[in-house]
Specification:
This protein is an alpha/beta fold. Helix content is 43%, strand content 15%. The longest helix has 20 residues. The protein has two domains: 146 residues, Rossmann fold (3-Layer(aba) Sandwich); 297 residues, tm_1862 like domain (pyruvate-formate lyase- activating enzyme), CATH 3.80.30.20. It binds cobalamin and iron/sulfur cluster. The site of iron/sulfur cluster has 9 residues, from loops.
């Protein structure tokens, strides 16, 4: 039996608003526990990890790293290595696409891609003192020599996996108090947007592997019934799947069974051109309360040629009209600061948002993650200096990464977009005056307050208590990195 301590970004106050759990460790913990190992979790905080190390005495520290967040993980791991004796392994999106982090001091192994089969195989071999240099998906460093292995095929049937181990987070009070929980019914996405990790993943995988896999409706229902039993406080579910409605037959069966067997309001994500009357009606009967919709840009060239979204403005407008007409709330997500972005193109994004009348409009700065198509394009066209590879922000809410004209004004616009979609009469003053003032930190605070307000009054189907909203606002301003 090995003792494995997962290290992830844990934002305690965000746990309260639900959905902010990391599925990699939860799912891996379930698989590992089934094979007799013990697992625990700690946030990215030296004191918390040290305390857990003293009490839990882990053999392995297992980090789930995103690009940007990996820098603090590497630093922390190095510091811990000076005091404790453990094997360190890194998995998640960053090592998957930037496996060269194995060269960093203190990193013993990295896992590329899926860990469901690879991690238990590696842990078992390590425990038994067997050869760990040939485990597929893993790169290992022994006496400064690096052993690189190819990736293995993806798991085809997700139903063979146990349910994610939610108890991993039980130690956090905010999590125990939460009224919202997150669920994942699928892995992967069949689309190829240039800024998303899915297209890199498709390229990396074994030829012929299915890109998108979804658990059976029955398997999901069993998990949700268990969740209701174990966490009776939960009133709202957030489906973290990239797109819930890829498979129409699945949606039909899910809608029917969910209404009878679970019957809780829920949030999910959809692509605009895939929204149909039938899907929304079916899902609404089941409990659909809020849809998150990526629109990304109102400019056709940026949206389709640069970001690879492949959808017309007309498809977006028609798609979003459906939830609006059926009284289902929805948010529009926008990307600001892509190559070619100008003060005119962001105005097109604002216009499209205003036309579609979302419940909430949010925006993010384009962050070209290593090895994505947009990264290569940005470097090749002088928008990004590849030497900045270690300078990724931990979050893409704060600023714009690329070198583009009028960057500061575009960042100001990004922070003021949500408010000016809600109150379109503000746009002349935003455009002609506010974005020109060097007040970005203030605009960022306005945006966070607005988000806090929307969360309190619109996003949740239940009345968010005063205490909960105070914690959410506090978190948005002082703590949140997600
Ligand atoms: C749900 C989600 C979120 C949620 C929850 C985040 C969280 N902490 O888990 C929210 C909305 C909060 C979020 C926020 C952010 N996200 Co996000 N998110 C996702 C999403 C859609 C699913 C992640 C997931 O749970 N997958 C399911 C699990 C099972 O897969 P997995 O995590 O990859 O784990 C598997 C393997 O990687 C491996 N593995 C994982 N950990 C480990 C550890 C070890 C030791 C081993 C051996 C193996 C291993 O095994 C697992 C099972 O196969 C992904 C896209 C995607 N499909 O993965 C983006 C994604 C991970 N997010 C991304 C980003 C950028 C962010 C933010 C930085 C955005 C921001 N706000 O600025 C923040 C960072 C939050 C943070 N620091 O935690 C990027 C990461 C890109 C990159 N190169 O790092 C992704 C890939 C999307 C994209 N843009 O392409 N996100
Ligand atoms: S639709 Fe969403 S999840 Fe799928 S490739 Fe595009 S951005 Fe990624």
């Amino acid at each position: 039996m090995s003792r494995i301590l997962f290290i992830v970004h844990v934002d305690r106050t965000m746990l309260l608003s639900g959905g902010f759990v990391t599925f990699g460790p939860m799912w891996l913990s379930a698989v590992l526990k089934k094979q007799g190992h013990q697992c625990d979790i700690a946030g990215l905080n030296y004191k918390e990890i040290e305390k857990t190390c003293r009490e839990f005495k882990p053999d392995i520290l297992a980090y789930t790293a995103f690009t940007g967040g990996h820098v603090s993980m590497l630093k922390l791991n190095k510091k811990l290595k000076e005091r404790y004796n453990f094997f360190s392994m890194f998995g998640g999106p960053h090592p998957t696409f930037s496996p060269e982090i194995i060269e960093e001091d203190g990193v013993d192994a990295i896992c590329r891609g899926e860990g469901f089969e690879a991690m238990p195989e590696f842990v078992n071999k390590l425990e038994r003192g067997e050869d760990i240099t040939q485990v597929k998906n893993f790169w290992v460093k022994i006496d400064n020599k690096i052993y690189k292995n190819p990736v293995r095929p993806l798991i085809k049937d997700l139903d063979i996996l146990p349910f994610p181990d939610r108890s991993l987070y039980d130690k956090y009070k905010d999590y125990r108090l939460a009224r919202t929980a997150a669920v994942m019914t699928s892995q992967g996405c069949p689309f190829n947007c240039t800024y998303c990790f899915n297209h890199q993943l498709h390229e990396m995988m074994v030829k012929g592997d299915p890109v998108f896999r979804q658990r059976s409706v029955g398997h999901v229902m069993e998990e949700l019934k268990q969740l209701k039993r174990d966490y009776p406080k939960i009133e709202y579910l957030v489906f973290r799947d990239e797109i819930i409605n890829v498979n129409k037959k699945w949606v039909k069966e899910f809608s029917q069974r969910y209404a009878n067997e679970v019957g809780m309001p829920f949030y999910c994500l959809m692509r605009p051109e895939m929204i149909t009357e039938e899907t929304v009606e079916d899902l609404k009967k089941a409990g659909l309360y809020f849809i998150g919709i990526g629109v990304e840009s109102g400019n056709d060239f940026i949206r389709n040629e640069i970001l690879g979204r492949n959808m017309s403005k007309k498809q977006i407008i028609n798609g979003l009209k459906i939830p609006r007409d059926k009284n289902v709330k929805f948010s529009m997500y926008n990307i600001i600061g892509a190559p070619g972005e100008t003060l005119d193109t962001v105005m097109e994004t604002w216009e499209l948002n205003v036309k579609c009348k979302p419940t909430f409009s949010d925006s993010f700065g384009l962050t070209p993650y290593p090895k994505t198509e947009i990264y290569n394009y940005s470097v090749a066209n002088g928008f990004l200096d590849p030497k900045l590879n270690d300078k990724y922000p931990e979050t893409y809410h704060e600023g714009i990464m690329l070198n583009i004209k009028n960057k500061r004004q575009l960042e100001n616009f990004m922070h003021l977009l949500g408010v000016s979609v809600e109150f379109p009469f503000l746009m002349p003053i935003v455009k002609n005056f506010l974005i020109k003032c060097p007040l970005r930190p203030i605009y960022n605070i306005i945006r966070k307050f607005w988000k806090g307000y929307v969360y309190r009054y619109r996003i949740y189907p239940y009345r968010v208590s005063f205490r909960e909203s105070l914690r959410i606002i506090y978190n948005e301003i002082f703590v949140s990195k997600v």
